[in-house]
Amino acid sequence: MREKGHGADLVAVARKYGMDKESLKDFSSNVNIFRSEKIREYLKEFDIESLFRYPDIHHTDLRQTLALRYEVNEEEVVVGNGATELIYLIARDPRFQRIGVWQPSFTEYERAIESCGKEAVPLYYNGNFDLDGRYFSALEDLDLVFICNPNNPNGRLKHIGDFANLCKALGVALCVDETFIEFSHREEEYSLLPLIRTHPNLMVLRALTKFYTLAGLRLGYLFTSRDNASSLASLQEPWTVNALASKLVSVVFDRDFISRSKEFYRAETEFVYAKLSQIEGLNVYPTDVNFILFELEKMSAASLKEDLLVNHRLLIRDCSNYRGLGEGFVRVSIKDRSENENLISALCTEVMKGSYGRDLR
């Protein structure tokens, strides 16, 4: 099984380097930097008594709220303890034995498949992170395919409607992970959510984790056909969503918060991308969301990560554990302007050291 590797592991990093985790600036975690004031206000008035009772085992109100927000039917919604639980739920479905994963991508797809004793079949993107048609013939031997759109770690959106049609024609189930799509102003253009009624085995995955900055709450949701939703829900443990998560969703989808976040990331990501592209020794990949992938030409991601930690208290994501990526790939998230400028300055310093020798005296 592939090694676990995620961003935002501040506790482990601080312990390893003997640092105060509060002193670290975390560019490895790609959650929204904004916080919803409506959520803060709701929590002040939250009915604590509801935590002493079992939540609704069917999550009826929660699924109704999500159905209204995303314009689907309640019966087309499956909820879980974060998107990750739903990924593992899909992976252990006995209908799916040979499962393809478009790579490089989020490492938990492969871990979930292997944890169920099943075969994870890699389907590799080309050098521009586009679907490589040479792997389409492999679909005939698969039961399910995972694809991330926008993709993690490069953040690029793809038009994959034709690919969904191909999977439908071949009788292959398709899970599209859209957990980052709400960062993009082109969400409606690229989302496959409108296809769930015409593609019975299509599953569209989203969560509150990234865009709504609720990583600690753990709420993910899956949109799919009624029959598929019923089949998946029958395999699920009871009460995987807590009462707080179920109730809080009623105030999460704040239009002002959504609009403000999208506009900020549209502008700030363009700024950071332009600045990073000017640094000699970096190959920077285009993105549509709140993080950027680049490849180091003359040093490893592990070396840069340590240099930035020790010398600048900045934490980045070493992406060398992604299948299909080399040791020089790094992902950084977008923060506010001053933090982004600090990162860019530190990168200029450390990449120059790595390119021209460690001692610049």
Automatic annotation (TrEMBL):
Classification of source organism: Bacteria, Bacillati, Bacillota, Clostridia, Peptostreptococcales
KW Electron transport (keyword) present: no
Sequence ranges assigned to domain Aminotransferase class I/classII large in this UniProt record: 27-347
Protein name in UniProt: Aminotransferase class I/II-fold pyridoxal phosphate-dependent enzyme
SUPFAM superfamilies: PLP-dependent transferases (SSF53383)
Any GO molecular function: transaminase activity
Protein keywords: Aminotransferase, Pyridoxal phosphate, Transferase
UniProt entry tagged with the keyword Transferase: yes
Gene3D superfamilies, A to Z: Aspartate Aminotransferase, domain 1, Type I PLP-dependent aspartate aminotransferase-like (Major domain)
Cofactor(s) essential for the protein: pyridoxal 5'-phosphate
